[in-house]
Specification:
alpha/beta; 11 helices; 35% helix
């Protein structure tokens, strides 16, 4: 079965998914959709699954479903891209599905802009939350204390990808709301932010970062969330699967499976830890297969 992974640079417009393949790997196991039990109309092509750069919960869920769908006889292409191009690509038919839409807050702007051309398949996890985190032994416990102690953190907040909802909310709401205009909100990437977090906690230094739950970093590093007394980061959200409007017709069986998909945070943390914490590499296929083998009954239930 053919599986491909594609990577899009920040800000690159989508001109058609097939023209953007940068890397791929394959193993033959039959015709597309030949092993699927239901109607596989549309299965003469690959399912185009978009993955947000740096959003580990979405990466984990996407690799999980790539393995499941491949086992069921489908071809799957994973494409890494930044948030804005993904929604434009879904609306324009370049992608079929993304598993990492946070609602009702973080990605609401994109849903409002493209909503008529998108299909919300519902939440598969309801424990998502945006956070601002610091090292566990930091001298503060609340965002309301950060402005007065900014120098202890080198007057910097280490952020992630500039197009993300987390960075928009941090810059537009959290920074002015807590008087943090004197601090620099660094536009970075999730891997770069995590590298800074690892370096600082290993060295016993203070650091403040934009983060979110669920994320494996909470198990890997001695960190804590700063309290948000003004509620500017919002309440807990759901992680939704969002598809192109054509997805239900092209892949009706998969549409039903994804619509019924649920994964609690404990299982998600377990998969994320296996992929990103316990394993040092980026060939996640064997890691996911091993995790599936240890959770086979639950995985089988996702397509039963």
């Amino acid at each position: 079965m053919m599986t491909k992974r594609k990577h899009l640079a920040t800000g690159i417009a989508l001109a058609g998914a097939s023209a953007l393949v940068l890397a791929g790997c394959s193993s033959d196991s039959g015709d597309s959709g030949s092993d699927a039990g239901g109607d596989t109309s549309g299965a003469d092509r690959a399912i185009e699954l978009a993955v947000f750069n740096g959003w580990d919960e979405g990466i984990a869920a996407s690799y999980l479903w790539e393995a499941i769908l491949t086992e069921q006889g489908y071809d799957v292409e994973l494409t890494y891209a930044d948030v804005a191009p993904v929604y434009a690509g879904l609306a324009g038919g370049d992608f079929d599905l993304v598993l990492d839409t946070w609602l009702p807050i973080t990605h609401s702007d994109y849903m409002e802009e493209y909503g008529n051309d998108l299909d919300d398949l519902g939440a598969w996890n309801n424990d998502a939350a945006l956070t601002i985190a610091v090292n566990e032994d930091a001298p503060i416990d609340s965002l309301s204390e950060l402005a007065d102690n900014a120098d202890a953190f080198n007057n910097e907040i280490v952020g992630i990808e500039p197009g993300s909802g987390l960075m928009r909310i941090t810059g537009d709401d959290v920074v002015p709301g807590y008087g943090l205009d004197g601090m620099t909100l660094i536009e970075s990437s999730t891997p770069a932010m995590l590298a800074e977090l690892r370096s600082a906690t290993d060295a016993g230094e203070n650091i403040v970062v934009t983060l979110w739950r669920p994320h494996w970093a909470y198990d890997a590093f001695p960190i804590k969330d700063l309290e948000d007394p003004e509620g500017l980061l919002g309440e807990a959200e759901g992680i939704h699967s969002v598809a192109a409007t054509s997805f239900s017709d092209d892949f009706p069986e998969v549409h039903e499976w994804i619509s019924n998909f649920e994964m609690d945070s404990e299982k998600l943390y377990s998969l994320e830890n296996a992929m990103f914490n316990e394993y040092d590499g980026d060939d996640y296929g064997p890691v996911v297969e091993e995790w599936i083998a240890g959770n086979q009954e639950w995985v089988d239930s996702l397509t039963s």
